[in-house]
Design goal:
The complex is a heterodimer of chains A (about 300) and B (about 120). Chain A has two domains: about 30-135, no CATH class; about 150-300. In chain A, about 70% of the residues lie in helices and about 0% in strands. Chain A is built from 15 helices and no strands. The chains are: A mainly alpha (about 300), B mainly alpha (about 120).
């Protein structure tokens, strides 16, 4: 064996190992190129160039096969890598250039060189990741373009109708507080009911968080808050969002809300952690008769 | 080390830094930079821009000093306490067993200290 033999050279060994590892990882990780939705040109060839008639199909094969192969290569090495670039850019900016907490001026300035140095490798990492391996739910073709408010609310209704719960959850996380309550609230009510039944507490937090963005008075939202306070006060998400629910009552001097809180106090199943909060909020809402009722009850207890 | 190896190492390091919560990511571990932050607070955008050529190197140096000097030094007592807790506290067994384990314990002390110290210095634990 010659020392110069390329076949056995170190360079060849490294390349072979690298390709082999990528291939194995690709098989394991549901590689992007195995996803139909990531092969745009191949799909176009299949939809438009293949005749329906069997005989014509066989006759056309010598033309279709090379065209399809070429389309596949273009998809894998050009179309797909380019299509993931916006998402790669977004992720790089979000990881390196968007601080997770409020930083001081010196810290912000001081991190600029580090972020600059880390940008090329992080960008390359995300690019390779989305190009090669991200073939699961989020396709490499960017399926999450920036939606305007109308498109966003339409997409939520569509996901609910089509029972695409994961997409619905994700959509609600990107809550748009700018949408009118009459459009926003119905889908949030429906989603709450669904996720409540399916015991997905994480989604309940997101829904209540989105509802908290509604500030103007809406009787349906008032009734909904009353209902969840009455029925779901044992749920952690409801307890976590008690302040925003109560603020809604306070801001709109909600008599019904205040009455619901009075009723909660009479509920023997009410957890003790709620009691001081409710008493406090009833006084903040400020309905005189309810305040008097609380004071009288306290006096009776003392007597 | 060729360009390709450097690229792989930088990528891996970046991924690790993102996956694990590094010590310097936590603001409570940036003693010097926090001091600078609280003392240098330009109120207007133009002031931020004018100060940037000076503050970028100062801030970078301060973050490096925090990450590589001050924070590692500040966790030495914590690492000593952890080493004591792992190896020396509440010895089990009788006097013979303790005598037998004494030399290995001495040998393991610097190793345990090194790991604890590196752990506390690098990661936010």
């Amino acid at each position: 064996m010659s020392n110069n033999s390329y076949l056995y050279s170190n360079k060849f060994g490294k390349k072979f190992t690298f390709i082999f590892i990528i291939f194995l990882t690709c098989l394991q990780m549901n590689c992007a190129i195995f996803q139909k939705k990531n092969l745009l040109l191949v799909n176009a060839v299949e939809e438009n160039l293949i005749p329906e008639d069997k005989n014509k199909k066989i006759l056309a094969l010598p033309l279709i096969v090379p065209v399809g192969m070429m389309a596949g290569l273009l998809d894998v090495f050009i179309v797909h890598p380019i299509s993931v670039l916006p998402r790669v850019g977004r992720d790089t900016i979000s990881s390196l250039w968007t601080p997770k907490e409020k930083l001081g001026y010196v810290t912000r300035m001081g991190t600029i060189p580090f972020s600059t140095i880390a940008t090329p490798p992080v960008f390359s990492f995300f690019w390779l990741h989305y190009w090669l391996f991200d073939g699961r739910e989020n396709s490499a073709i960017d399926t999450s373009p920036v939606l305007n408010d109308d498109e966003w609310i339409t997409s939520l209704n569509f996901y609910y109708k089509e029972k695409e719960w994961k997409k619905l959850e994700k959509g609600i996380q990107e809550c748009r507080g700018t949408i009118s309550p009459s459009q926003l609230l119905p889908i949030l009510f429906l989603s709450y009911q669904h996720f409540m039944l399916s015991d997905k507490s994480k989604s309940l937090y997101d829904i209540l968080n989105c509802m908290a963005s509604v500030e103007i008075y809406n009787p349906e939202l008032e009734n909904f808050y009353i209902e969840i306070l009455t029925k779901d006060h044992t749920i952690d998400a409801v307890f976590a969002y008690k302040n925003s629910i109560s603020n809604y009552f306070v801001n709109h001097t909600s008599k019904k809300g205040s009455q619901a809180m009075i009723n909660m106090l009479s509920n023997p199943k009410l957890e003790p952690k709620w009691v001081p909060f409710i008493v406090d909020q009833i006084f903040l809402i400020g309905i005189e008769s309810h305040k008097t009722e609380i004071i009288e009850k306290l006096q009776q207890t003392r007597l | 080390m060729n360009q390709y190896q450097k690229f792989i190492i930088i990528t891996i390091v970046t991924v690790i830094l993102n996956l694990n919560q590094c010590a310097f990511m936590n603001s409570s571990n940036r003693i010097l930079t926090n001091q600078l932050d609280s003392n240098i607070q330009p109120s207007e955008t133009y002031q931020e821009i004018l100060l940037a050529p000076l503050i970028v190197p100062v801030g970078t140096a301060s973050l490096l000093v925090d990450g590589f000097v001050l924070h590692p030094m500040s966790v030495v007592p914590k690492a000593i306490a952890k080493t004591y807790e792992i190896i020396w506290i509440e010895p089990s067994g009788g006097i013979i067993r303790q005598s037998f384990l004494f030399i290995p314990k001495i040998a393991f002390t610097p190793i345990a200290f090194a790991f604890s110290w590196l752990g506390y210095a690098l990661f936010d634990i």
